[in-house]
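Notebook p. 47: complex prediction with pyridoxal-5'-phosphate.
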Amino acid sequence: MAFGWIDEQAAARRRAGLVRSLRPRPADSPLLDLASNDYLGLARHPEVVAGAQEAARTWGGGATGSRLVTGTTELHTALEHELAAFCGFEAALVFSSGYAANLAAVTALAPHGSLIVSDAGNHASLIDGCRLARGTTQVVGHADPDAVRKALGTHDGPALAVSDTVFSVDGDAAPLAGLAEACREHGAGLVVDDAHGLGVLGAGGRGAPHAAGLAGADDVVVTVTLSKSLGSQGGVVLGPARVVEHLVNAARTFIFDTGLAPAAAGAALAALRLLGREPERAARAREVATGLHARLTAAGLEAVRPDAAVVSVRAPSPEEAVQWAADCRAAGLFVGCFRPPSVPDGISRLRLTARADLTEEQIERAVQVIGGTRP
Ligand SMILES: Cc1ncc(COP(=O)(O)O)c(C=O)c1O
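Predicted complex, structure tokens below:
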């Protein structure tokens, strides 16, 4: 029977407690949200919503074509200029998602005969970029510049190291300065995904590469998503102008994809301008994360010390993680639940996001609920 094997896979998933399902979210959900990636609480900010509305009124519902045909509006260009200036890079290129931006950066910068050295904890979109690239990939241990150095030392020809800046599962930060040093010793490029760093780390939320003194370097390329701190949707590659020009000409997820919807570009631009005016939002997100971690640990829970705004709490098994998240939801708290295959080490976790707009009372309530429902 066609697709018969799907039923076997579904049965195996059920047996392993790994079934995933969609739960539509009502607009007026009463749940306290510690599950979204809206780190700065900007997705529903009136200025961000107005940015989307104004852009849709001006440019329409869609970009109408690929970026190289009709899909580049003046709004896309303004967003690219302002993001590059904010993060400290020469140029920026907007994509329809962070996923597409990562596929573009890795595939276009790793030609035939090249080596890609990839951290074992990287996000799926970087992993898929490695799979699609013409170069050969070597996966190295997590957050280990010496392993990167060693791998680069085995190769003659173009090379690239790729890493998340803040790992989405545990919220720990990559050793960016060490990675850059290892790459420079071997003349290799460094591509880092700052999806969870932009808006949270660096001065006023300028991101982890900015904080590490790597902004504007001619051997560093940064990818970001507009869908987390900036409360919108879309992705961006930031780097030297010659890299961006190369992507315009060579990156398939740029060339063969419809441009980002104007409403998303308008919302992201409004959020970026707001963050520029209110830089304290970044520090507040970090402060909420530290406070949340301290209280969870004091309550006897095993939480990983956060380097940005993601706080991860260990769960004993995938089934118990799912039940724990469901019990939290029943008690009015929405938390994320990570389990295999989304976690490379097989450890299931609750994943909490420390939003800048959480109040002390909400943080306390969250800790009470998580502690009170623990398996
Ligand atoms: C580290 C990381 N990179 C890339 C992405 C993909 O970004 P987008 O959702 O914009 O496709 C995500 C998650 O969404 C992520 O967590």
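Notes: Residues 232 and 268 are 5 Å apart (CA to CA). The longest helix spans residues 280-298.
Next step: compare against the earlier run before touching the bench.
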